[in-house]
């Protein structure tokens, strides 16, 4: 079992745990003497609320998806769900916690008018979250949506205790459907970049035409 987990503890192309900034960030947001579950929870909340979620702030190059690149852009720049998942996975590995990425397509039922207009779909393709091996079992954690955004959308933020899967908000605070998973890609030791890029081209016609991620027009 330990041998099988080795790949989820090592640096990889996007989960660059050997980068000084990633090492420093993990150390700053965990207590090395605490149990691993406690460290995992601390990292989850630091990343969930420390980086503003934005589906529009997507790197145009593969290098921009590295954990170190997410840190270099800073917490106010806006981070995609994959950015935040990669950073959490990198920090977890540095704490000796096996971590892998999981990807799925989800349909968001609230606040998607702009998404549908610019991407041509209400489906978030290749939504990313993290699975960490804690106390001998894989536990899912989704640090994408920061508390401030959840308050704005009227949904409770996803909590994480290190023991129970924290995957998505199915309903808003009024009981209406908020989000549903429509396709599962499974888990990976790193971002399957070519598959992700081809799926975005398949689902998002405008992205396929331009090769660039659309962004809303700035208003003064």
Description:
Helices cover 36% and strands 17% of the residues. It is α+β, with helices and mostly antiparallel strands and 220 residues long. It has one domain (2-210): C8orf32 fold. The protein has a four-stranded antiparallel beta sheet with strand order 3-2-1-4. Helix 2 crosses helix 4, helix 3 (36-50) runs antiparallel to helix 5 and helix 4 crosses helix 5. The longest helix has 15 residues, at 36-50. The radius of gyration is 17 Å and the shape is globular. The N and C termini lie far apart (55 Å). The mean pLDDT is 87.
CATH fold node name = C8orf32 fold
Which strand order does the major sheet show? Answer: 3-2-1-4
* Overall pLDDT: 87
- Which CATH-level-2 architecture? Roll
Helix content: 25-40%
> Which descriptor suits the 3D outline?
globular
Q: Strand pairing plus helix content: what structural class?
A: alpha+beta
Order of secondary-structure elements: HHHHHEHEEHEHH
| Low-pLDDT ranges | none
Number of domains: 1
> Can you summarize the main beta sheet?
4 strands, antiparallel
CA-atom Rg in angstroms: 17 Å
Taken as a percent bin, the fraction of beta residues is 15-25%
CATH class: Alpha Beta
Distance between the termini: 55 Å
DSSP E strands, number: 4
**For this entry, what is the oligomeric state of its chains?**
single chain
Number of H- or I-type helical stretches = 9
